[in-house]
Automatic annotation (TrEMBL), chains A, B:
InterPro entries: HTH_LacI, LacI/GalR-like_sensor, Lambda_DNA-bd_dom_sf, Peripla_BP_I. Pfam families: LacI, Peripla_BP_3. This is LacI family transcriptional regulator. One of its GO terms (molecular function) is transcription cis-regulatory region binding. It comes from Streptomyces populi. Transmembrane segments: none annotated. Keywords: DNA-binding, Transcription, Transcription regulation. Residues 3-57 form the HTH lacI-type domain.
Length: 349, 349
DNA sequence: TCTTGCATAGAAAGCGCTTGCTGTCACGTT
DNA sequence: AACGTGACAGCAAGCGCTTTCTATGCAAGA
């Protein structure tokens, strides 16, 4: 059988209550007693029963981190930052929480199921990362869940995700995707580009929509007509960028620039351009978004919008742990920074 | 207050026992009763109390996935694959498990603490990914924990990690890092290279050691002296690859090839070479390891050893869930495949 | 008609911990 | 000398579920 609190108590010649208090350190215990208890814990190699503890205390040390795609560094980096602040092992004393990363794969159902699972576990906090899905029914369902979680005492934080009007309790750290998208396109327009292709992410995603809106706002501000044929939607992966670029090129071979939904997509775009015999940026400029670590290393280095993923994640983690004040109004906008590098240049003449 | 089983029972006019049985579906319940119960569950918006359930049933639906660095796609890809098989939401019926990814950051203490945390939660299974740390004391401590976990009924699987002799219960899916490393270096030797630099990962890591051993075996097999000055150790990141390459170049400017510990490091190596005015592969060939998604997109595309991360992860996940037979002897070796691409060529004359 | 047996439902005993409340003892106060 | 007053420690009542064991009802077999 496994060792229980009672066993430790017996060995240390104290009551179970005292052992519990030593372990939780939330009640005065004479140091001699404490020592005796700790020795017994050690000798018996006792490990607290988490479920029992959670049940009795009506709290748990689980913190859920929902990501759309754990294999994507965009989420990996944020998750790492969040987890580092969750404390978990190595964190500051006491708050030993288990930061658990849940991979929704971008599926609404999985997102909901994970939320239920976390609710079931009475999670201490939940952090949702990345763009939300723009489906009224689903958004409503998620908002309802978030509200329930909040009511049950779970702290809810959105990181890199727009605020949910129906769940105002959720603290939101939102990326300024619109502003970033606009900056990027204005940079290209400033270089002289007039025929820009845009590879958008999956439809029905807030991130996709906002970045695209920024792009269009820039075009509009400069009196450039937004030909819908110059926009293609796809997934947030390299393959999709490759195919979308070929498609854009087919539709309009005179393009001088391609703006991608993110860096990974931009990578695919670069590959497609090269395979089509076009030089970057000599023939076509390429821009990405996010500034993932590899973006500076590709050749030519990618012009992109740097999002402070680590900083935002860390902040979200701290807020989730109640170690930092939420922003006023529960909403903060995190801006990106335009990184001009080698993949963009003046258009060919 | 939150809704409890008893509330549902009252509403459905049955006993709590019956509700529990309906929910778990492990006992015959008349279909009319079942329906009544399910309706009540729905109407009350009841969510099972996980801790209570785990306590009573002495089992939990948590599955731990330990990774060294969640921000590194190497681990992200494996974690995604494992989680997809854990079932979690979207998985096959019934087994709704919570696959939790724990980021150790490569720290031995955190690894141990996470294992304790998972033990505390009475995890259903634990999957450890990536290379182990070669410290006798730590390895022993981990092995002891794994044995304890196993005794407590937790399934233990190692994925991309060498078997632990002290914890033979743990199923191991090991990458053939040695063989891959050897293949890679033999490829370069075959091209005519004789002065190869090697950027190894952190010391005291099995992955590092095995890849390096493969490299040396290849050198040895071809009668090439292994000058220790041609090997530099560093972290598994781009920066480290950049610096190590400059160091290698300083030590021996006549190098014609650089073999990196992994693709990310290789990326940094490429950058350093370019910044030093050297062409790839014209002046210096570069090879990586892992074949991460971006490796085919960098210019020139990286010669590397492809590791079937997704397949291995999926298999580990299935084994952890008891849905696939463990390999005979509890150990399986997963081979890599040499991918020859543009970053390697004949040495300059 | 009286068992037997099966299918189903309920009663109740925990699972291992936390915590409010109740002592107990040793001091410092009046 | 009687009496607060802290500082500790223990009792015992749950926390919300699972599961064993025990009814109960009813159809079928003897």
């Amino acid at each position: 059988m496994t060792v229980t609190l009672a066993d430790v108590a017996a060995r240390a010649q104290v009551s179970p209550a005292t052992v519990s208090r030593v372990l939780n350190g939330n009640y005065p215990v004479a140091s001699s007693t404490r020592e005796r208890v700790l020795r017994a814990v050690d000798e018996l190699d006792y490990v607290l029963n988490g479920p029992a503890s959670s049940l009795a205390a009506a709290t748990s040390d689980l913190v859920g981190i929902l990501v759309n795609d754990i294999a994507d560094p965009f989420f990996g980096i944020m998750a790492a930052a969040i987890q580092s602040e969750i404390g978990g092992p190595g964190g500051r004393a006491g708050g030993e929480r288990l930061g658990v990363v849940c991979n929704t794969g971008g599926s609404p159902e999985r997102e909901l199921t994970y939320l239920t699972l976390l609710q079931r576990q009475r999670a201490a906090a939940v952090v949702l990362t990345g763009g939300a899905i723009e489906d009224t029914a689903h958004a409503g369902a998620v908002a309802a869940k978030l509200r329930k979680l909040h009511e049950a005492g779970t702290r809810v934080v959105l990181c890199g995700r727009p605020p949910a009007p129906e769940a105002p309790e959720a603290i939101a750290l939102t990326f300024d995707n619109r502003g970033g998208g606009r900056q990027l396109t204005e940079h290209l327009i400033g270089l002289g580009h007039r025929r820009l292709g845009y590879i958008a992410g999956p439809e029905e995603r807030t991130t996709t929509r906002h970045r695209l809106e920024g792009h269009r706002a820039a075009l509009d501000a400069h009196g450039i007509e937004d030909d819908p044929r110059r926009t293609v939607h796809g997934r947030y992966d390299r393959r999709s960028g490759y195919e979308a670029t070929l498609e854009l090129l087919r539709r309009d071979p005179s393009l001088t620039a391609v703006v991608a939904a993110n860096d990974t997509v931009a990578l695919g775009a670069c590959a497609a351009l090269r395979d089509s015999g076009l030089r970057i940026p000599g023939d076509v400029s390429v821009a990405g978004f996010d500034d993932l670590p590899f973006s500076i290393d590709v050749v030519p280095a990618l012009t992109t919008v740097r999002l402070p993923l680590t900083e935002a994640g860390a902040r979200a983690g701290r807020i989730a742990m109640g170690r930092e004040e939420p922003p006023p109004g529960g909403i903060a906008t995190v801006r990106g920074e335009l990184m001009v590098r080698g993949s963009t240049g003046v258009p060919r003449t």
